[in-house]
Amino acid sequence: MNPNWIEKVANGLEAEAATELDVSKLDQLNIPEKLWDVIQAMPGWFPISK
């Protein structure tokens, strides 16, 4: 998920806008552990790639 996705789409850079949470990049995403637990417990809330 990219917080700047609107800008990327407006500038024709759709391919650069992340649309899934990439498990291999969890350390870079800085998602708090409790939030990650909730995300995993609610399948379909966010698309997750492995």
User: What would you report as the Rg, rounded to the nearest angstrom?
Assistant: 12 Å
User: Low-confidence spans: pLDDT under 50, at least 5 residues?
Assistant: none
Task: Write down the overall mean pLDDT.
Answer: 89
State the end-to-end CA separation: 14 Å
Helices, strands, pairings?
Layout lengths: L4 H6 L10 E2 L3 H4 L3 H9 L6 E2 L1
Parallel strand pairs: 1-2
Relevant terms:
38% helix; two-stranded parallel ribbon; mainly alpha; 8% strand; single chain; 2 strands
Molecular structure report:
The chain is mainly α and 50 residues long. It has a domain at 21-50. Helix content is 38%, strand content 8%. It contains three helices and two strands; from the N terminus they run H-E-H-H-E. Strands 1-2 form a two-stranded parallel ribbon. The chain is elongated and about 35 Å long. The relative contact order is 0.20. The model has no long low-confidence stretch (mean pLDDT 89).
